[in-house]
Q: What sequence folds into this?
């Protein structure tokens, strides 16, 4: 049951003594994954020498909570790719279906083509504002697990609402792109339905971000060793990225085979994603333990605002290296979240690739983000988490700095179009005039396509690595007992500079230097790397050492029990 703090497979954690009294039988099957510092190869050969299942699903041997953590990340993969590849496309079509002849919707309040971007702005602002509130409430109440579960449930409901509103039928208008077929129109074709759909998508984004935030707060409590935490986080992102790729392949394959339009693809994809998400969410949620202990020194008045303010002041005064991370990640996240959008614009507008080719290249990057998720755990065997994070950002920055140097295209003339009157896909308009024009477009040189493939592979690997690196490093820096509050601050501060890459790209593009527009991402990643290089990881760990007794979860309870036994023995 969501929100009750209960766990069907693991008893509720009420205090440390309840953990100490657990039987050996209750902990069987998870000893290998909980042994700190045990290498991946050792886990492969432990317990009957491993096997095919362990080689392909190493998380099956993790401790219960680490396994649940990985499953919850996998549950988010489907909704993430659904929004990016299918729901936004169908939303755009929905907006056009209720547009007037001037291309506006909602009584001329905005262009139909601006609906998707406007929704993104609203959702981004609300996420930045609400995340600290959600994090603070989670730290000040014994309901962190319950709020996380409720976020996943709201996420599923919002996707279901989208599926219902995307149900369509053929209209009485000929498709302007295919004279042999009719334009599809949603059954609920009205401005009111568009408003409901936009609200559902905003709620979906907020619930997704809340679920992501609260799931991440469990990362520091999965192990007492930073590199062990990095390994769990790496596999969590591995399975999430794989889920994104798998859902995208299945939905696109079925849609192409059945000849689905955008609405039908969104409906079928939404149903598939709902099922896929539930398959991982239910066992993942059951394996997570409730966090019921609250430090009595935390200030709970003013609905947690005093606690939030105290935490901000604490970070500024006591944890300077945490502040350095916040600043660095605000740059890195701004650039990484803009990669797909700006790369799409660059590939189509400067290199002249069509939509199918661009989608294929982005899918290639998504494919390589799967093994990229394991980049950080592998590198952390040789370098510190800070160095790994710096390297990922530095390489990312260098590739985008190099890209416009080697990506060359030529401007060619587009064939003239005769002035004519054509059918429009604006839903409440029948036709409009198109005048003849002499337009030019960019066309990539022959060898560039193969270079772009190589760059997309590298970008995919780094995309899979950068989020693993940031979550792993932050888990090593965050004080105990306030994981949710600090992770929520990370989310909020990460959105502070999200406008910067798009603004820089647009400014360069509007200046007529389209070729160099993509370079705008390079310096942002490099600035993130330089700032992170000044983080003193050893000192940061010493700074939070006095707070680690507040960490919850079975691993930390057992660690504290072992420490107490050692102290008693030495005395």
A:
């Amino acid at each position: 049951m969501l929100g009750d703090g209960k766990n069907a497979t693991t008893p509720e954690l009420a205090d440390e003594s309840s953990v100490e009294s657990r039987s050996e039988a209750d902990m069987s099957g998870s000893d290998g994954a909980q042994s700190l510092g045990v290498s991946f190869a050792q886990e492969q050969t432990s317990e009957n020498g491993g096997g095919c299942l362990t080689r392909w699903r190493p998380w099956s041997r993790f401790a219960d909570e680490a396994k649940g953590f990985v499953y919850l990340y996998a549950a988010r993969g489907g909704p993430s790719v659904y929004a990016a590849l299918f729901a936004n496309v169908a939303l755009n079509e929905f907006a056009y279906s209720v547009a007037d002849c001037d291309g506006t919707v909602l009584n001329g309040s905005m262009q139909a083509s601006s609906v998707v971007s406007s929704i993104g702005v609203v959702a981004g602002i609300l996420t930045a504002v609400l995340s600290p509130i959600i994090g603070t409430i989670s730290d000040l109440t014994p309901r962190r697990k319950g709020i996380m579960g409720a976020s996943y449930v709201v996420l599923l409901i919002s996707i279901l609402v989208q599926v219902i509103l995307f149900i369509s039928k053929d209209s009485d208008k000929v498709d302007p792109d295919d004279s042999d077929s009719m334009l599809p129109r949603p059954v609920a074709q009205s401005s009111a339905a568009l408003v409901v759909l936009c609200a559902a998508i905003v709620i979906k984004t907020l619930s997704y971000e809340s679920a992501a935030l609260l799931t991440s707060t469990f990362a520091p409590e999965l192990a007492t060793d930073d590199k062990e935490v990095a390994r769990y986080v790496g596999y969590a992102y591995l399975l999430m990225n794989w889920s994104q790729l798998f859902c995208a392949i299945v939905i696109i394959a079925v849609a192409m085979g059945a000849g689905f339009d955008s609405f039908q693809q969104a409906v079928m994809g939404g149903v598939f994603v709902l099922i896929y998400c539930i398959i991982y969410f239910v066992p993942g949620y059951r394996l997570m333990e409730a966090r019921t202990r609250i430090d009595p020194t935390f200030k709970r008045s003013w609905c947690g605002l005093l606690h939030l303010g105290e935490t901000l002041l604490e970070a500024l005064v006591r944890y300077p290296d945490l502040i350095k991370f916040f600043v660095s990640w605000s740059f890195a996240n701004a650039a990484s979240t803009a990669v797909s959008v700006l790369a799409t614009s660059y590939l189509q507008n400067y290199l002249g690739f069509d939509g199918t080719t661009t989608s294929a290249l982005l899918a290639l990057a998504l494919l390589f983000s799967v093994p990229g998720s394991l980049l950080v755990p592998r590198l952390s065997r040789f370098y510190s988490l800070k160095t790994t994070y710096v390297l990922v950002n530095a390489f990312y920055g260098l590739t985008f700095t190099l890209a416009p140097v080697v990506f060359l295209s030529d401007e060619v003339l587009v064939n003239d179009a005769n002035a004519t009157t054509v059918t429009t896909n604006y839903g409440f308009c029948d036709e409009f005039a198109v005048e003849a024009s002499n337009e030019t477009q960019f066309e990539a040189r022959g060898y560039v396509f193969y270079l772009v493939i190589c760059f997309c592979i590298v970008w995919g690997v780094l995309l899979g690595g950068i989020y693993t690196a940031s979550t792993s490093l932050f888990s090593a820096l965050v004080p105990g007992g306030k994981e949710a509050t600090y992770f929520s601050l990370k989310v909020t501060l990460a959105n502070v500079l999200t406008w910067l890459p798009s603004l820089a790209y647009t400014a360069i593009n509007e200046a007529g230097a389209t070729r160099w527009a993509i370079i705008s991402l390079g310096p942002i990643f490099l600035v993130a790397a330089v700032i992170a290089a000044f983080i003193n990881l050893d000192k940061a760990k010493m700074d939070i050492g006095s707070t680690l007794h507040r960490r919850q979860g079975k691993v930390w309870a057992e660690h504290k029990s072992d420490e107490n036994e050692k102290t008693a023995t030495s005395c």
Notes: Residues 1-54, 416-420 have pLDDT under 50 and may be disordered.
